[in-house]
Amino acid sequence: MNKEAELTVAPEVLAELPLDGMVVTGDALYTQRNLCEQIIAQGGDYLFIVKLNQPTLYQEIVLVFDDPPQGEVFSFAQQQDRHGDRHELRRLWASGALMGYSQWPGMQQVCKVERQVERKGKRKADVRYAVTSLGSKADAGRLLRLIRGHWSIENQLHWVRDVTLGEDASQIRKSSAPEVMAAIRNVVLALLRRGGAKNIAAALRQNGWQRNGTATLAALLSGPFG
Fold this sequence. Notes:
This protein has helices at 3-15, 33-41, 55-66, 140-164, 177-194, 200-208, 213-221; strands spanning 23-26, 45-50, 75-83, 86-95, 109-119, 122-132. The protein is built from seven helices and six strands. The chain is globular, with a radius of gyration of 20 Å. The chain folds into two domains: 3-139, no CATH class; 177-221, no CATH class.
């Protein structure tokens, strides 16, 4: 399913979910007024990444952190991880300075998230911004854990679908074909993970080298849960 279709379906999916006491996280695609209003109305909270698809909100948040109000003290948290030769440092600053000023529905806090990744002597860094309906009781540590959990979902599903399985580069756009291909990609991912695959790209290469595709499929289908 392409991103535009996902956005159309999202309100219907949320309407079927018990959101009371839950936190809905999402990337910038879902940072929409109607979705935020719906989540609040259903008793839930949201935490969404903000990019230039919402230019006014984005500029308001950037200004808070680049030129904070006098006396503003940010809530702060950081996490460090190491996976083999990959080192990651995540920092989050949170502020309630826009509450009562911004017109964004349900806004309680805004966040600046910095992620640094170092591997084999090379360092990459990126900065993202976020908006949430969670109030001051959700400190920076909790907000960082929620964002990290969302990134984990992106890495395990969306990034693998978009990049490893080539969804972003797909030229299939007519009729229901994109949805059919998305469903096939999800099945492939489910089968590979069911078979114990940790690295999807490596698993695709390994299975691509097999001459007997039927035997490979049968092995996956009769995996640990078969």
